[in-house]
Description:
Elements: E1 52-58, E2 63-69, H1 80-86, H2 97-105, H3 110-118, H4 128-139, H5 142-153, H6 162-174, H7 178-190, H8 197-209, H9 213-225, H10 232-244, H11 248-260, H12 267-279, H13 283-294, H14 302-314, H15 318-330, H16 339-352, H17 355-367, H18 374-385, H19 390-402, H20 409-421, H21 425-437, H22 444-455, H23 460-472, H24 479-491, H25 495-507, H26 514-526, H27 530-542, H28 549-561, H29 565-577, H30 584-596, H31 600-612, H32 619-631, H33 635-647, H34 654-666, H35 670-683, H36 689-702, H37 705-715, H38 724-737, H39 740-749, H40 755-761
Antiparallel strand pairs: 1-2
Helix pairs in contact: 2-4, 3-5, 4-5, 4-6, 6-7, 6-8, 7-8, 8-9, 8-10, 9-10, 10-11, 10-12, 11-12, 12-13, 12-14, 13-14, 14-15, 14-16, 15-16, 16-17, 16-18, 17-18, 18-19, 18-20, 19-20, 20-21, 20-22, 21-22, 22-23, 22-24, 23-24, 24-25, 24-26, 26-27, 26-28, 27-28, 28-29, 28-30, 29-30, 30-31, ...
Amino acid sequence: MASLPPHCHYTFSNHHKMSYPAVCPCRSLNSTLPKTLIICKNSKNETAFEERKQVFVDYDNGKHEIRTLVNGLRKHDIPRRYRLRVEGERFQKDWTVTEVVQRILKLQRSGDVEALLNCWVGRFSRKNYPALMKELTQIGSIEHCVQVFNWMKNQRNYCARNDIYNMMIRLHARHNRIDQARGLFFEMQKWRCKPDVETYNALINAHGRAGQWRWATNIMEDMLRAAIPPSRSTFNNLINACGSCGNWREALRVCKKMTDNGVGPDLVTHNIVLSAYKSGAQYSKALSYFELMKGTNIRPDTTTLNIVIHCLIKVKQYGQAIEIFSSMREKRSECCPDVVTFTSIIHLYSVRGQIEDCKAVFSTMLAEGIKPNIVSYNALISAYASHGMDKEAISVFDEMKRSGFCPDVVSYTSLISTFGRSQQPARAREVFDMMKRNKCKPNLVSYNALMDAYGSNGYLPQAVDILREMEQDGIHPNVVSICTLLAACGRFGQKVNIDSVLSAAELRGIHLNTVACNSAIGSYMNIGEYEKAINLYRSMKNKTTKPDSVTFTILISGCCRMSKYEEALCFFEEMLDLKIPLSREIYSSMICAYSKQGQLVKAESLFNSLKGNGCCPDLVTYTTMINAYSASEMWEKVCALYQEMEANNIQLDSIACSALMKAFNKGNQASNVLILAEIMKEKGIPFNDANFFEMLSACSILRDWRKATDLINLMEPSFHLVSLGTINHLLQFLGKSGKTEIMIKIRGIGIQCQYQYLLNLVEEPFVGWKVEKIH
């Protein structure tokens, strides 16, 4: 029955058959004429769906929360026929949309959700449905959203809408439910709901998140066939789908197609392209693209600079990364550093070995009010793990749990590595068991870390047991697992076990890559199995496994340790033929080989070529060259090298100092030995046995027994580490100097030496001693 205005309803009498005008101005609206229809009230509440912010601050606990409140259409806004239906029903509640969402999130069973929604008065207005789904999808509770959506489709007043389907597709994409997202796409078409550009954008984004860039490309082609013009967001989603898979070339092709269609890139596009380069490990290209981006009018944001900092760390340009970080902190109005920025800088200092700076950056992040996430905590734990600082790592681990974060597999694995490096494999096993108890499933990296914790500390049988346990848990070992076992075998001279590990890798179908072959060759070299190492190297060529710089470094350095200098020279020539870049280790080993062969000119030429290539020699290279000059009695060049090391800020160690001291003693510059000893004390460089021997030799040459007395006081805490030759040398010098009281003091410390040697040195005071008293 058609709806008419109230003033158009008339009752015709049989007694008066006359016509009335269509409009009777004299008839009042308050007439008591009978009405045959109930007129529905159309809601004109325009503020019903406005979002209002509500802030809760807990000053005692230092927490705050921001909530978005949406009222929706209430009881007085719904049609009158529904108001009459719910009036007097005590189970019908006039909740706001936000209150409904909060009550839904507290429920677990699907039946409870339907019962709750059936008590909501606002269900009679379908305008509330989009607002309800928007609130739920933003929170991200997918199970509740699915239940509400299924309930909604069973309502009589439901009408399929694009925005609701788009929200559900995006929600499924966030939870990597690609099949369900695709099913919703086809379902909305069955409900006569035509997909729009936002629908296609959501579906492309869903496949991009799942790494299915080809599907995303096909969806865009379907979109074009449906005569729906793609937007900038469409292209951005497709570029992101290609870039997130590391397919940066395809991402650039889509970007070019975007500009050809007259759609210009924005900041989001540039960030996606930079991210594509990063995912594809094209760090130099990303930095070049960033330089080109500077020439445009688009100003980079925090995301842009975070990607650039990551790429700079990967190419080891740490100084520039720190400069960008500092500029972000100074210009907070433009690009304020966030938790990702601080986490990247923590990782930077961890790579450089500056652990104190890692902690300082973490503290700065807290001081600036930025709440660290679990990745930040993991980065700090990994920094401590790389140096075996178990107490500090445990402290951060506990702090992370107190902050409300549940440790993930990365947290536990970093802690396992910490105890492995600090030579505590038993505690590493405890962490591994705790990880299982807390229902955190170990991955391949976790097993490899535990295997390395045992293998690097000499517990090879336990490391093999972990390999078997890993396979029992359904995790197949990879080449890293094999490398870990090979390194453990070579470190502790297990020749038979090296062959067993290689056989086990072959049985499991694990192809040895270059890194694994290098580990096996190094293990063979460490136990002196030269022939097996060479055979394995030759087999690399037959298996098309290319040797790299590390391979030749292991071979050349191993040959030098075995005094096979001619073989080392052959490997060096082979390396040059293959055009493999030379490393500092190669230079050091070859300088040693040339000097041992008496070819000092070639050794010096190689050393100069290293400096000519713009590569500063390291401490090992300088030490090798000092030994070469010392063997050839070129004392002036030794002094020149020492001055060059100081100019290049090369920090000395005990080995380099002993090489310098030996050269000074041979070159009749014993006074320089004592000066160098003072420098070692000032810089806190620990003394080893070779240092003590050369310092004693210098005191003997200078006949300076006072310095020798000071040296004895310096040696006293380390007498248990001093060799017998050094002790004999000390006693000989004291005997010649007539310092018998000092010799008695040395005897009182408990030094064990050959009594016959001592009796040949001592003079009158020692002749009457009994042999039994000499311990």
